[in-house]
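Field reference: sequence -> structure
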Amino acid sequence: MRALEVCNLSYRYPDGTQALKHVNLSVKEGKKTAILGPNGSGKSTLFYHLNGIILPQKGKIIVKGREITKKNVYYVRTTVGLVFQDPDDQLFAPTVWDDLAFGPNNLGLSGDEVAARVEGVLSMLGIEEFRDRNPDNLSGGEKKKVAIAGVLAMNPEILVFDEPTSGLDPKSTSEMIELMDELASDGRTVIISTHNVDIASSWADYIYILRKGEIYAEGEPESVFSKDDLLKKTNLTAPVVVRTHREFEAHNIYKKQDKVPLTILDLVENLNGSKKQKRGMIRVIQIPGMKDGGVSAVDLDELK
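Structure field:
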């Protein structure tokens, strides 16, 4: 079953900016979907539609078989949880507890049920110590966790993250990806927007590329990231693993494959060479801050 469908959606802002043009996409239940595109491509505007914050001017959006209208916006917002890119747009209460309790209270839950949900999400995200703190006094990464907790407290079936790793350090980024994987493994449908090709390629089951308000391409990651001309036209670079794969091919140290690798393990597995050399290459590629993920010309020469 389709968790969510967008049908011929178009939207123009009052100042005349055409943000979305004839957008069509379909998201299967329980799948991880990434909307990939550069800044200004229309990702946030699209996501505001998925949660009913903005209603379609043209086209329609169907959530779990029901078209979004003014009459069922409440249903949509309890089914589709949207985490904003900037958590300051989402947090408003004097304490974290109050913020997390706001949604469940609006659902009409009893005090005990509200408390159980709040405690549950505090524990799930490991932020129990934030319970009585003012969100304004938290760091950016901490605020983002609280914003996510507030959405999870509503227990939505579909989770939509607008640029979930924006502004996060590497450790927090890894934790965010792990959280999104955990939510998907629990059976939720997870949709993210991102301009980070490395995250999109290694995380998503399916990818849509949004360019100037239009769906320019779609497909499974192996298909999308094997097309260099497509990435060039959409102002996207290939993921680090794919660029390294191309470099290996150029040096004739890689077994020819029909599909590009999307993880370091997939990349190294198909190298020509001994297991010892492959293990060494895994360590080299994972070194942060080096060009192409840590693969240098010296490393390539040693593997020939």
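Note: The first helix runs from residue 43 to 50.
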